[in-house]
Amino acid sequence: MSKKIKGEDGKVYEVKAKKPFYKKVWFWILVVLVIVIFGAVNSGSSSKSSSSSKSDTTKSVSKATAHKTTASEKGNVVAKKASKSITVEYDKYQISGSKTFIANYTDSSWPSATVTANKVIIYKLSKPYKYDSANDGKFPIQGFARIYYAIKANQDISIYPTQGTYVYSNGEQHEADAGESWDGDISNGATKTGYVTVPIKTLPNVSSITTIRCQFTANPQSDMSSEKDYDFTINLK
Question: Domain-by-domain residue ranges, the chain?
């Protein structure tokens, strides 16, 4: 499109008219670019806002439902502590404490056998119990002494620590528990081990007994009349 204008020299000139800027191609390209950029920025901001909102919501839910993990959930279930007890002639006695003494006593004075008392354990009962003894009926007790033996036979013998008599430093004298029978006949060259359990009437604590006198008999199987009497004292230190 063109228009005619009159110049200062009086002549008429034909001048080409300029298009308005909004009719030009570059203007609309610029508009499109601005719209695209604005849309992208707005979308990113919206996404970030949504993500932040979601994160806050997650934190809020987590905080609301959180709880202290229990030992059971961790798999570290703590078992209840088993109560301590001693069984004597099929009866169970609860104990409050015990003490082990190393005896290391050996008697080889009789050629037919070597008798060793390895150790002694004193048990303090958690309360007084009624004890049904082998020969003395029922009486209250506060503890037990358990003497551990090893007997090596140098010929065929019969020996009976479980039928012996035991005397404590406090003056008490008792027979061994009748339910133990690991001893008796022992063949030449064989060694038998076992323990003898003896009641204690008065036992203030596990260190109250300081000595135990042990008395029992033995004899060769070939000569029942040739009896050996054992009589020795174990010091508990």
Answer: 2-47, 85-235
CA–CA–CA angle 200, 203, 206 (5° rounding): 105
Give the residue from 223, 150, 164 showing the smallest Cα distance to 192.
150
141-163 pLDDT per residue, tens: 999 999 999 999 999 999 999 99
* Mean pLDDT (whole number) for 82-106: 90
How far is Cα 98 from Cα 198, in angstroms, rounded to an integer?
14
**180-to-8, 160, 165, 235 alpha-carbon distances in Å:** 147, 10, 14, 23
pTM for this entry: 0.64
**Residue 155 in tokens:** 């010929």
| C-alpha to C-alpha distance for 140 and 189, rounded to whole angstroms | 41
CATH annotation of 85-235: 2.60.40.4170
**pLDDT digits 0-9 by tens, 177-209:** 767 789 999 999 999 999 999 999 999 999 999
